[in-house]
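Co-fold these.
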Amino acid sequence: MPKISRVSRRGGGGAKALAGHLAKRASVGVLVEDAQWRHLAAAGSTGMPSSVQAHLQDNTPDFQKLRNGYAGRTVAIVTGDTRLGRLSIFGANDLDTLEHAARLTASAIAVELARESGAQPGRRRTFWEQLVAQTYNDTVAARDDAASRSIALATHYVAVALEAENADAVAFRVAVLEAFRGGEGDAGFLERSGALIIFVPASREVDASNTRAAAALLQRNLQKQQLEVRITGGVGSRVAALSLQRSLAEAEAALTISRRLYGSGRVAIYEELGGYPLLLSGGDSNAMRDFARRILAPLRAYDEKHQTELERTLRLYFSVGENVKTVAAELNVHRHTVFYRLRQIGEICGCKLDDPHDQLTLRMAIAIDALTA
Amino acid sequence: MHLPLSDSRRAAGKREVLRLAKDGNVRFVRLSFVDVLGVAKNVSISATELEAALDGKVTFDGGSIDGFVRGEELDMVLRPDPSTFALYPWSTPDLPEARLLCDIAMPDGSPFEGCPRTTLKRAIEEAKGSLEGIAVALEVEFYLFEALDSEYGSTKTSDVGSYFDSSANDRGEDARSAIVAALQTMGVAVASSHHEHGPGQHEIDFPHGDPLAAADALLTLRSIAKHVAAARGLEATFMPKPIEDRAGSGLHVNFRVSAEQQPETLYMIGGLLAHAPALTAVCNSTVNSYKRLVNAWDAPIYTVWSERSANALVRVPREQPPQLEMRSPDAAGNPYLSLAVLLGALADGVAQHLLPGDPLVGSTYDLAERERHERGIGTLPKSLRQAITELDNDPVIRAALGDHIYHAFRDAKLAEYERYRRAVHAWEHRAYLRLY
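Predicted complex below.
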């Protein structure tokens, strides 16, 4: 068998070239999947399943037979203690004689995968430090410098700040990496004041909302993996890459508020903390105006689009001491209509009107809006 | 898997089946199974052969059934599920007839990879770890039309009712009640039924149960509805869109999440949305299905979820325990395969921690292209051909089907699409015949 590194270079890169080489030399079908069972490469024409996930005997790294009728063998692709995926072979009469070749190919693929994902950690860290220090004049400069350090810079990011108690550092980082996948582009990592900072790529709004959801589920998932760790954290809002400092400041503020309001064991979302960040920072009039606009914006957009008067209903509801009968009389509608509108307001603002925290936020926004109008 | 056994027939075993058959003087038993396309088939045996059938000694020629086309599938074995034994409601005292739903096995008794019912059982087994305690309820819509002497059936109805209407002169109402009564006689629990949106359109809802029972119930409903309707001068059709400008008939699949699994609900929604394009090939498996999936009549067209929007693909009302309503499927497909791929998508969502983005407020039909892009909202396939391509590209859903069924289903559906593509439709005559 020729040197695997040479094969890899000639084939134009990693797993695909190596799988092709093994398939050709051993006349077998080869399937390479990553740790999440995503297809990485396939070669050889022999019938093989789309994934071996359902055909594993067990999830050990051993070279093992596949079950459910497939004439195949599979071996884990491993680097250190981390499993990166699986290499599986199919079709030949005596697959057991190919164990050595399969293991060798899996090792080579592990090196390729590790090389692709882990280049130059020190230089990468410096880039993120410079980005949050706002040392780049424009996006092009930031993107060029990122590219020179093998970082694909996304257009937008969400900052997440996490503190962990009793954590096995490596296991915790692996779990965090798994939780915050984000969208297109590379994630960034920093450590600041004892907190792990993750910059999650969020080119689209959905990446940001999924980051928020992942943060909310993180503690439970760590427990499910039997990691004895208690985390406290904060998630900033989605910002353009050059404004990462703002998201970081929000994430750190959310972390502080989370710790003070709820103790440890919870990750708070800055955008869901309502008026608390304002109270924490003692914001100036601009910050207050921005806050009020941000909170009331979804309601105003809905009113404008659908010609409704939800904002007016909400203001009235608070001003008359939450008396639905009075609101109905003032607006000349049935009280069921008021209940319906209040439900709509909750859905549009993503809050519960009977929740004291949410109510504080809405009341503050309305009060500030009245003062700064 | 959680089995809410409100339905006592599920407890039956071989001895009990033999006793029930004897007590009912059963003369014939239909051994029913489905092909890959979901079409019900049966072999009728004399009651004297029932014990042998229950021992898995009845074989049939699999070579002539859609999806069972290989040479080695000539002598397939029928393995009746005793829990599905039921007397047909139209049995007469002198000719009592019963049915048993069957799995299909290889001649050596091993499970046959091309059996849809076995495929669903495997999906349930594989989902045990990640979907513990999940229960399935179905809402099935269908039309009842006048039975006229025409080659392809009719779409004529004298019914003028709409959503939840009760009309004294509507024969469909009576037929629907008779269908529900017949189902109950056969041991199939029905939660409710009502008139649906379109004139002649009805809905029957099955309560939450295990997925296999749900698929069995739908298969039974399709057969019972046709029998009962025919006896009343009507025709029942589960065709997804029988009339262009009326509401289509869907199959809303409700998944009730157990208390333990509640924190995983978002992942389950994520799984349904991520795999929705490929699911569509199986859950909307006719060329006609795609005429229902248009921006009208609250049919879903985007991969989006919502708490309230009636036209979202997945609706998750703020209820405890959480319920996920998958709204795109229709009842014309293979119920076993539809539920198998849906379970596969749910389980993958949990395994891969797939997240669905924020829920949508308002109608999905109002979504602009830019908003859809930002929110990561995709479009459901617009044709069976597109859906098959999506299926080809989704290893998770293909794995849920198994390689045998995937290939058999794909080949059959491509051929169906090609026949449709070559056909000249009435619309084309109206649009072009005189114009050009």
